[in-house]
Design a protein that fits this description.
Layout lengths: L6 E6 L2 E6 L4 E5 L2 H15 L22
Antiparallel strand pairs: 1-2, 2-3
Length: 68
């Protein structure tokens, strides 16, 4: 099934960045066309079901969040 997504493309130095406005997905390329093509691939990967190669390991991360 195909579905349209709105995207923006802008230049960052020597690269073009592209971002899907509906999803938290972005990519880049050396040309606008390449950036959009890479974004299309990233969007398609976003919707693929996850396939774990090994069971995920749950870890604890401590972070400083307030003044001491």
């Amino acid at each position: 099934m195909k579905r349209p997504f709105a995207a923006t493309v802008w230049r960052e130095g020597k690269w073009y960045a592209s971002q899907c406005l509906e999803l938290d997905v972005a990519s880049q390329g050396e040309t606008e066309e390449e950036a959009l093509g890479n974004l299309k691939e990233a969007i398609e990967l976003h919707f693929e079901p996850p396939r774990a190669t090994r069971p995920p390991q749950v870890r604890v991360v401590e972070a400083e969040v307030g003044a001491a």
